[in-house]
Amino acid sequence: MSLSAAANGISDNDFQNIGPAPRPPGAAFNKTKPITKYANQLDLRDRTPGARAGAAGHKKSGWVSYKDDGLLSFLWQKRFMVLSDSYLTLYKNEPTRNNEDPVLQMPLTTVVSVSRTQLKQNCFEVVRSSDRNSSASSSSTGSNGSNSDTSRRSIYISTKTEIELHTWLDAIFAKCPLLSGVSSPTNFTHKVHVGFDPETGSFVGMPSNWEKLLKHSRITGEDWNNNSAAVIQVLQFYQEYNGVGPAPNNSSTSSLPRLNTAQHTSGSMAKPSSDLVPQRNPPTPPSSQGRPKLQVSTAQQQNQSYQQYQNQSQPFSAKHPSPLQSAPSHPQATTPSPRQMYPHAQHQHIQQQQQQRGPYSPSAANKYQHNMQNPYLSNTPPSSKGLVAQRQAPPRPPIGKPNASNASTPPPRLHPQRPSPQAKPTQENGASTAAAAAMRQHQQQDHSPGYLQPNRQAPKKPDAMPKKDVGVTKQKRHQKPTMSNAEIMSKLKSVTINTDPTPYFQMIEKAGQGASGSVYLAERTKLLPYTESHRIEEIGEQHVGDKVAIKHMILSKQPRKELIVNEILVMKDSQHKNIVNFLEAYLKTEDDLWVVMEYMEGGSLTDIIENSPTNGSNHSPLTEPQIAYIVRETCQGLNFLHDKHIIHRDIKSDNVLLDTRGRVKITDFGFCAKLTDKRSKRATMVGTPYWMAPEVVKQREYDEKVDVWSLGIMTIEMLEGEPPYLNEDPLKALYLIATNGTPKLKHPESLSLQIKRFLSVCLCVDVRYRASTEELLHHTFFEMSCDPVDLTSLLQWKK
Ligand SMILES: Nc1ncnc2c1ncn2[C@@H]1O[C@H](COP(=O)(O)OP(=O)(O)OP(=O)(O)O)[C@@H](O)[C@H]1O
C-alpha cells in the first residue's frame, strides 16, 4: 500500500474523499507572539565604554515612538533616535549636549533583523542578537523567533509617516553589516516591505506596479481581507512569471524595486529548460546567495496554510457553492473579520534578488511604494463591483465549432495552444503547395522583427485577435541563457543530423502553430543515407511513405534555445506508447531546426474538447468512459516519466495528442525537469497557470505530484470544457488557485462517484495525500475506460 493511501487508511484500489488533512505542525501556528515575555530581564542599554562616542558621528536622527519587547513595556514612548555609523541610540531628549544619557544603545554589528511589523502604524522591529557569534544564522531567525530566543531581543519603532519609516529602514539597513554586508554587495536580496493593515483593510508599502496590477485585476477588497498574504504571493508570482510586468516606471534606469528578467537567471526563477542539460550547473537557491536574509515566514502565511488544509478537507462538496458560480456579497457575511483571522502582525517580506547592481538605493525605490486603500472599505461601492465595472469581463473560451466567431472573439486562454482550423488548407489538392507556401511564409514571419514578443509567448492562432496584455503566459521569455550559445549549439549538433532535410520530405499541410515554430504534416519521400542516419545514435525507424510531423523552428528567434535542447533530449530518451515518439532532428543551417516526430492526426485534446458534438450542450464534451480512457493513457505516460524522475510540468489538454486509432500521447517536453538524489524537489515557476498546482503558484518546493494535479485539472477540462477559473482574469485565477484549494465542480451531482474520488485524490492540496501516478493507475475510475474505437465520434471533426 502506498504511503499516502496508508496514511489515510484507504486501499490503493479505493481512493476515497480523504477527509481532513492532519493539522500542520504546531510551529506553523506561531503567530507573532504578544509582547509579553522577558520584560524585566531586558536591559538593552549598551554600557560598554565608548558607546557614547559612537553616537558622535551620527548620520540620521529624529523623534520616534519606541517600545521594547518586555512585559512591562506596554507603553509606547517618545524617544529621540540617532543612527550613527556604529550605533542605534535612543534618547529621552534630543542630545544637544554631550551629557545626555542614552536610554538604549545598540551596536549595529548586533542587529540581525529589521523588518516591518503591523504592531502599530508605520512600525518596524529591530532584532538584536546578544550572541555576536550567531550572526551567521541571522537569516533564518527573525521577529517571530526573537521572543523565544533569549539571545535575541526586539525593539519596536514607530514613525509618524510612512516616508519616515522607509528612510529609517533604508538607513538602518545600509549601516548594519549583518543586513547589508559591508563587502561589495552583489547578488544580494532586498525586501520590499508590503504589509496589510487589518484595521484599515489596506496594503502599505505597495509598489506602484503591483498596485496597478491589482487595480486591474478582479481581486476584490474582500479577497484582500480574506487572505492578503495570498494576494501578495500571487502578485509576486505574476510579476516574476511575466518578467517585469506592466511596471509604470519602465525606464531601465528606474530603481523601482521590481524584478527584472536578468535577476532570475541566477536565482530560483524559471530555469526549466536546462534541467536536463548535463553541462549546466545547478542553480543556487536564492537563500544561499548574498547577505543574510530576514525571515519570510509570517503569521499570516502560516494562518493561510492552515486555511488551505481546511479547504482541502471537503473536495467537491456540493454543500459549498462553486466560487465560479457565486461570490459572497459581503465579507462579513461569510468570513471572519481580518482581525479575527489575523490578530497579530500581518506583514510579508517580498524578497527580491538584485544582481550585480552595486548598492541598492532603497530611498529611490520607496518613491514608488504606496499605501493602497482597500476599495472595499472605502465610501465608494465595494471594490469587487467597482473594479469589475471598470473592466470588461474576459471573453469566454471559444466553445463550439471551429470558425465560430473566432475573428471577433479573442481566445481567452492566456496561452492558447490550439491550432487554428484555418491553418488547414482549404483545398486538399493544393495541400503540398499550400504547406510549402505556409512554411515559406512562416520563415518570413519568423524573421520579421517582433514576431516573437519578448516576455510573452507568441499567439498560437495566427488569426487570433491580439490578446489583452493582462495574460499570464507560459514562461518562455527572454532570459539570460543558462548555457552559452556555443554550448547550446554544440549540444544541439550532437543530437541532430546536420543535413538539409528538404530532399527527404514532402510537406503536406500545416498541422499546427506553436510558440517556437510551426508544425507540418509531411511525408517521408526518401531514406537518409546510411552514413547520415548513423551520425546520430538511435535514429527512429524510417519508411518511405510514412506520415510524420515536422516542427520547424528558427533558432535565432527562440528566446530560450536550451528549452529546445531539453525537449529533444527528453523525447529521444522517452520512447513509450503514451509519449509522442521523436524520430530525428535536423539542423539544416545554424539557424534552421527541424524536429521530426510521429504524426498524431487526431490533434490535441483541446481540439477534441472544443469540437466535441456535445460541447456547448448540457452534457460534458466527453463521456466518463472516454475521459477515463484518455486520462489513464496520459497517466501511463506520466508514470513512465516519473519513474525516470522526470516531471513534465505542463500537463494540460493542449499537450496531449491523439491519433485516429485513439492512441493518446503526451507532448511538449520543453519544461521537463529531472529530479535527482540531490534535488528531489523543484521550486521553479513553470507551467500554465490554470493547470498549476497550488504549491507552484505559492512558489513552494514541489515534485512529480504537480503533474498529478494538472492531470486532475485536465480531467475537469474534459468534463466542463475548460479548466477552473478560465473566465477569471489571470491574477484572480492565481489567487483562487492559491486560496480555494481543491476547485469545485460545476455539476458534481451528475458525475459518478468514481470520477469524483479520482479527482479528489488528484486535486488534493496537501501533496502528501495527493496520489502518485502509480497509485492512480490502480484507481477504480479507470475500470470504466472505453475502447479506443469509442473515441471515433470525437475525431469526426478532423475529417
Ligand atoms: N506530433 C504531432 N502530430 C500532429 N500534430 C502536432 C504534433 N505536434 C504538434 N502538433 C500540432 O501543432 C500544434 C503546436 O504544437 P507545438 O508542440 O509546437 O505546440 P506548443 O507546445 O504550444 O509550442 P511550443 O512547444 O513551441 O511552445 C499542436 O497544438 C498540435 O495541434
UniProtKB/TrEMBL annotation:
Residues 248-268, 287-299, 323-338, 363-383 have a biased composition (Polar residues). InterPro entries: CRIB_dom, CRIB_dom_sf, Kinase-like_dom_sf, PAK3-like, PAK_BD, PH-like_dom_sf, PH_domain, Prot_kinase_dom. Residues 460-471 have a biased composition (Basic and acidic residues). GO terms for molecular function: ATP binding; protein serine kinase activity; protein serine/threonine kinase activity. GO terms for cellular component: nucleus. SMART domains: PBD, PH, S_TKc. One of its GO terms (biological process) is negative regulation of gene expression. Residues 505-782 form the Protein kinase domain. Residues 12-32, 130-151, 246-482 are annotated as: Disordered. It catalyses: L-threonyl-[protein] + ATP = O-phospho-L-threonyl-[protein] + ADP + H(+); L-seryl-[protein] + ATP = O-phospho-L-seryl-[protein] + ADP + H(+). It comes from the Eukaryota. This is non-specific serine/threonine protein kinase. The lineage of its organism: Eukaryota, Fungi, Dikarya, Ascomycota, Saccharomycotina.
